[in-house]
What we know:
The complex is a heterodimer of chains A (171) and B (557). Chain A is α+β, with helices and mostly antiparallel strands and 171 residues long.
Amino acid sequence: xxxxxxxxxxxxxxxxxxxxxxxxxxxxxxxxxxxxxxxxxxxxxxxxxxxxxxxxxxxxxxxxxxxxxxxxxxxxxxxxxxxxxxxxxxxxxxxxxxxxxxxxxxxxxxxxxxxxxxxxxxxxxxxxxxxxxxxxxxxxxxxxxxxxxxxxxxxxxxxxxxxxxxxxxxx
Amino acid sequence: xxxxxxxxxxxxxxxxxxxxxxxxxxxxxxxxxxxxxxxxxxxxxxxxxxxxxxxxxxxxxxxxxxxxxxxxxxxxxxxxxxxxxxxxxxxxxxxxxxxxxxxxxxxxxxxxxxxxxxxxxxxxxxxxxxxxxxxxxxxxxxxxxxxxxxxxxxxxxxxxxxxxxxxxxxxxxxxxxxxxxxxxxxxxxxxxxxxxxxxxxxxxxxxxxxxxxxxxxxxxxxxxxxxxxxxxxxxxxxxxxxxxxxxxxxxxxxxxxxxxxxxxxxxxxxxxxxxxxxxxxxxxxxxxxxxxxxxxxxxxxxxxxxxxxxxxxxxxxxxxxxxxxxxxxxxxxxxxxxxxxxxxxxxxxxxxxxxxxxxxxxxxxxxxxxxxxxxxxxxxxxxxxxxxxxxxxxxxxxxxxxxxxxxxxxxxxxxxxxxxxxxxxxxxxxxxxxxxxxxxxxxxxxxxxxxxxxxxxxxxxxxxxxxxxxxxxxxxxxxxxxxxxxxxxxxxxxxxxxxxxxxxxxxxxxxxxxxxxxxxxxxxxxxxxxxxxxxxxxxxxxxxxxxxxxxxxxxxx
Lengths: 171, 557
Ligand code: SF4
Ligand code: SF4
Ligand code: SF4
Ligand code: SF4
Ligand code: FES
């Protein structure tokens, strides 16, 4: 390619007007070392993950979970979360129950490789039955493993209290 | 019929003077909300949501009961009307439980829809709602939720006027009003489930479908019921490739807006049943063994070749489509060369005055029309069976029907040297078969059925078999079907290696040396329309969604 004729040599950007002393960089090195050494005396904020873990504020949107109250899920399998989910992650199969709520999810599955943690499901749920938890550890070794059934989704009201309180106060 | 001129929302229309304002508006695509009015029932005028303003009338009036008169000026959308509608909605919602999340009607509920369109979304009612019984066993197939009822009386009028049995009635008054059956009675008429469709709310629900699926997760395919010779127009509701419910489709020439409970519940359960034949089978050492299509077809072809044509008989089926029967008859005459062609009639019971027909098959007149009739000097059904008993007929080929359920026929069949049958499910007949060809059910194939009025109606596939693809083969698609990826569990569901009968017959003919050029059911129907006089001029396009009548001349074959 002979496009050299279009290339013009640019002017040097750096002005070469440093004195000899400046060009030894002694002061600059000392300044840098001082800045680094200052940190030694400050408290550390690195977290030794996975030995240590971050506990997020209740406003954090981790993986969605189902709220369990008095031994049963609050969910009535209305399918609204499944309808609103932009990633089509939720699959609910409803069935009838003798309980007062008439209807319950026989199957409730969230495909965690589809979920985008948007929280729409939580927002739309008429029963406050699906809420965002503060769990963020989601690594799988197979696609099947990424589909969470009721066994992995159900969390007791007590355990989910911080999020439920947050929702009550801020929604 | 004298016409009158009326003005609806500023536009003049000419309307038949017998019509009401609501009908006039409907005709001209102006929607007036209505709960209690139903096109197929007498008007009752009790819900008041259809209030409109008629100029020179002091008060608003109900559109569903006010007949049009000449020079009438009607406003359906002005402020006064809108306010009245909002008030009616607020009133109806006072005691409504608003339990849409657990209500099966959600998604197809008039009250829900109107709450969006015609309501303020606000209630001044702070007192406690009146609670009534939920889960009332009002009939064997219908569940009643008293709280949700808006007392429109549609269900009562349906029983009185259509089903012809007085089974439901209002009891109590004011906010205690509810519907009940007479003591000791239940809502058990053969058409009872239509009240589920016409109930504008979720007060009456289908016990069989209850909580199975949200309606917005399903696809609906227009088809025709195969429960009897009426051929009620239906919609097949499918999710994850499984049928969950059938609903009637309105067709004034056939079934009005109704269907019977038998058709609604019993005509599709076999599709997913345990005894479904999922692939072709050949009898080896007394057992039916699953084999591939090529093997089964080759076996049938080679067996038939080894018989003299007078030793062969064939039986078409009134459960199979016109296309299946046509190809079957063509094959019998041209390839097998037999004259012994007939099918089993199923006249069981009596015709009632509503829909149900004594003939329990969807296509007996079609089977006859396309050539499933004994040929000159050929044997009819009874003669064929006797000839099998006598050992004169040695090979039998039978389309989808359980002929062995007739007493005595089973023993006859065990005399046969070769017996091939198309079947969807295991039954008495398949016990005697040497080859069972897995036939697609009426919800898995394209085709037409001819009802007792000689009306040709389309069936469309709603459930995919192994050889079909929902997207590529133009099926109705639900949201799940559209978006399911290869690794999603939903949007899938069981599929079987079955084929439409006409296609199986074409393959057998091919192996026997006669190549028929039919790629799909349309091709077969086009040939029927060319070759058979009564079908002349028809096409799938003409048959459309509501069917077309056969020409009523003498049918020549
Ligand atoms: S958080 Fe969003 S993407 Fe995840 S399941 Fe809920 S609605 Fe779907
Ligand atoms: S929206 Fe709530 S109640 Fe409805 S199915 Fe989802 S989790 Fe269950
Ligand atoms: S049950 Fe349904 S159809 Fe019958 S009166 Fe009540 S709302 Fe109307
Ligand atoms: S009347 Fe016949 S065709 Fe109609 S729904 Fe009933 S069984 Fe089906
Ligand atoms: S539709 Fe007119 S009063 Fe109900």
